[in-house]
Design a protein that fits this description.
Keywords: Calcium, Metal-binding, Repeat. InterPro entries: C2_dom, C2_domain_sf, C2B_Copine, Copine, Copine_C, VWF_A, vWFA_dom_sf. The chain is of the alpha+beta class. It is built from 13 helices and 26 strands. It has 3 domains: 127 residues, C2 domain (Immunoglobulin-like); 136 residues, Sandwich (Immunoglobulin-like), CATH 2.60.40.150; 187 residues, Rossmann fold, CATH 3.40.50. Strands 17, 18, 21, 22, 24, 25 and 26 form a 7-stranded mixed β-sheet that branches. The protein has a 4-stranded antiparallel β-sheet with strand order 4-1-8-7, with helices on one face. It has a 4-stranded antiparallel β-sheet with strand order 3-2-5-6. Helix 6 packs across helix 11 and helix 8 runs parallel beside helix 9. The radius of gyration is 30 Å and the shape is flat.
């Protein structure tokens, strides 16, 4: 059950990326009465629109002060949302399984992103009045594998029946999976090998979902035909198998099947078969998911760049996009907090570099397109999203808004960090650059060049257009409607830019903005590492639980 009303505001609904299993254990629960140990039960609640809703609860474990619950919570995981969770520990007295009579022993609040990025989260259980006792709770996350692995197969045959008068058969092979309702779905049809009774067909790749719906025991039907130019192909024979059987080829066993024509089997006395089909190789190609990389220790490095050009208007004037209103955050701050709040769960040090562009900066008031908002060029990092907000507010009175709007320098700055990371050839850090700008950029050619270069690196760029300018030109950078090319004509390797006009979300929740902006990031991370053939780090313990779980 998922309580989410933000779907009603017409934001494009993100598909649920993944289901996550949460396992819960507690330690050091104090006794309610000294004579007996508590009978603990954990209730999981999720927050939606400020309200807590119960999602599920564990079993009650009788008299245990350090219970390990067998109940597994299954929750939908959305990277682009802050999903707040609350684990409540109750002591359920034996006569009563309801919570009314139960003694509340403490609770722990966190986000699903925190559990996922740490894989195992241990925190103190807070009693009423938020005081920490001696007891703690540990929540462990595991992705429920929506297995996207591929398999590469190659088949050959020998001594197939000859169906042609003047030449030999022209065989091709079809593989069908048998669905739960008994219908058949074609998985693959090989090419036709002309005039050959012992054909070797080309190897092919197919996802395990397509081949057997992830079920290794699902029946597969394979049929061999003799191709005919008039489309009336002659049936040579067929056989049944499963992916489980094909998989044994990996252990070095050669697998072959007799190709049977049931009609001949009935009619001919000493009929053996209509030929033999051989599986030459079966190789499983693992496709890793966003959570594999995050749980493998990949950190999201989040950098912010803010537009300080004169077109924003004088910050002292209430019409300015940079106006600091005493009670209400301006659009820059709203966008920063909405996106930053999600990214910060995936960044262990919670330190965010923040840069400004398009302003004259002290001491000599020269224009800069990549100055540190805290004016510390050696360490532009701010502590948490709150630190970025404060640095932004402190910097405004000290600078003079100017121009032009050049964003290539800041993309290049983050790209140079990302390219150092790339040389480690490990999935350690992935960079997200959030650019907040009020207008169309001036250095379009350089920016295109910088984005094409960055598309080869572990980074993504998110641009939020603030204010009411005409952002048509910005859509070009977001390769959704065609391929972005550099001025020299080099295409981007992958689509790494997401552009969103803030005005589309002015009356929606911050969550809706974050959702729209961050929805593409998980796929961008996965595309980058999978294309490079980089596996998640420290998979060992996690991986073993996931290989071949159908």
């Amino acid at each position: 059950r998922r309580f989410d009303l933000s779907r009603t505001i017409g934001v494009s609904v993100s598909p649920c990326l993944t289901k996550v299993e949460l396992r819960v254990a507690c330690r050091g629960i104090s006794d309610r009465d000294a004579l007996s140990k508590p009978d603990p039960c954990v209730v999981l609640k999720m927050q939606s629109h400020g309200q807590w809703f119960e999602v599920d609860r564990t079993e009650v474990i009788r008299s245990s002060s350090s219970p390990v619950f067998s109940k597994i919570f299954l929750v939908d995981y959305y990277f682009e949302e802050v999903q707040r969770l609350r684990f409540e520990l109750h002591d359920i007295s034996s006569g009563n399984n309801g919570l009314r009579d139960a003694d509340f022993l403490g609770s722990m609040e966190c986000t699903l992103g925190q559990i996922v990025s740490q894989r195992k989260l241990t925190k103190a259980l807070l009693k009423q009045g938020n005081t920490a006792g001696k007891s703690s709770i540990t929540v462990t996350a595991e992705e429920l594998s929506g297995n996207d692995d591929y398999v590469e197969l190659s088949f050959s045959a020998r001594k197939l029946d000859d169906k042609d008068f003047f030449s030999k058969s022209d065989p091709f092979l079809e593989i069908f999976r048998i669905n739960d309702d008994g219908t058949e779905s074609l998985v693959h049809r090989t090419e036709t090998v002309m005039n050959n009774l012992s054909p070797v067909w080309k190897s092919f790749k197919v996802s395990l979902n397509t081949l057997c719906s992830g079920d290794h025991d699902r029946e597969l039907k394979c049929t061999v035909w003799d191709w005919d130019s008039n489309g009336k192909h002659d049936f040579i024979g067929e056989f049944q198998t499963t992916f489980k059987e094909m998989r044994t080829e990996q252990e070095g066993k050669q697998i072959q099947w007799e190709c049977i024509n049931p009609k001949y089997q009935l009619k001919k006395k000493n009929y053996r078969n209509s030929g033999v089909v051989i599986l030459n190789h079966c190789k499983i190609i693992k496709m890793y998911s966003f959570l594999d990389y995050i749980m493998g220790g990949c950190q999201i490095q989040f950098t912010v760049a803010i537009d300080f050009t004169a077109s924003n208007g004088d910050p002292r004037n209430s019409c300015s996009l940079h106006y600091i209103h005493p009670y209400q955050p301006n659009e820059y701050l709203k966008a920063l907090v909405a996106v930053g709040e999600i990214c910060q769960d995936y960044d262990s040090d919670k330190m965010f570099p923040a840069f400004g562009f398009g302003a004259l900066i002290p001491p000599d008031f020269k224009v800069s397109h990549d100055f540190a908002v805290n004016f510390d060029e050696d360490n532009p990092e701010c502590a948490g999203i709150q630190g970025v907000v404060e640095a932004y507010q402190n910097c405004l009175p000290k600078i003079q808004l100017y121009g032009p709007t050049n964003i290539a320098p800041i993309i290049q700055k983050v790209a140079s960090s990302a390219s150092e990371e790339m040389h480690t050839k490990e999935a350690m850090e992935y960079f997200i650059l959030l650019i907040l700008t009020d207008g169309v950029i001036t250095d379009m050619a350089d920016t295109r060049e910088a984005i094409v270069h960055a598309s080869h690196l572990p980074m993504s760029v998110i641009i939020v257009g603030v204010g009411n300018a005409d952002f048509t030109d910005m859509q070009i950078l977001d390769g959704d409607d065609g391929i972005l090319r550099s001025p020299k004509g080099e295409p981007v390797l992958r689509d790494i830019v997401q552009f969103v006009p803030f005005k589309d979300f002015k009356h929606a929740s911050p969550a809706a903005l974050a959702k729209s902006v961050l929805a593409e990031v998980p796929n961008q991370v996965v595309d980058y590492y999978n294309a490079k053939g980089i596996k998640p780090k420290c998979l060992s313990d996690y991986e073993s639980t996931r290989t071949f779980s159908p």
